[in-house]
Design brief:
The chain is mainly alpha-helical. It has five helices and three strands, in the order αααααβββ. The longest helix is centred in the middle third of the chain and has 47 residues. The chain is rod-shaped and about 85 Å long.
């Protein structure tokens, strides 16, 4: 904990840069909007095809082929959109984790004189003892500190 306090500015600067770089979802949001628009177009095409089939007698084999192709395209676009939405969600979760970590580091005292379980839980995800004199702390932000 004292290492985090001592190197506070380094961690704040580095993690803020990482948060800004990895947390930008602008392009992904743009792509998701395009996929949403495509889903609307595909849904309209399916509905139009169904309506046309109800009004006009046509070869049902050809209709079924066109229908299956349109539905398949719709489902593929929907799958891609859902994957993208999940990716955006994961990025936002990671971004918020980094923000909380940075806020906690900013509030650290200059020097720890007693253990604070709340701050420990907010900062340290796990601790691995490798040998008698080597320990790795995995922080909640994903970084590791080796002592």
């Amino acid at each position: 904990m004292n290492k985090l306090s001592t190197d506070r500015e380094f961690y704040i600067t580095e993690l803020t840069a990482i948060k800004n770089r990895l947390g930008d979802t602008t392009e992904l949001e743009k792509e998701r909007r395009i996929l949403d628009e495509q889903l609307g177009i595909d849904a309209k095409a399916v509905n139009d095809l169904i309506a046309q089939n109800a009004r006009v007698a046509q070869n049902q084999t050809e209709y079924n082929e066109r229908y299956e192709a349109l539905v398949s395209r719709y489902e593929e676009t929907e799958r891609r959109r859902d994957e993208l939405a999940d990716r955006i969600k994961q990025i936002m979760i990671r971004r918020r984790k980094l923000e909380r970590f940075i806020e906690t580091v900013e509030g650290l005292p200059e020097l720890y004189t007693e253990f604070d379980a709340g701050q420990w839980a907010a900062l340290v995800d796990s601790m691995t003892v490798h040998a008698k004199d080597r320990i790795t702390f995995t922080l909640t932000c994903g970084m590791e500190i080796e002592e």
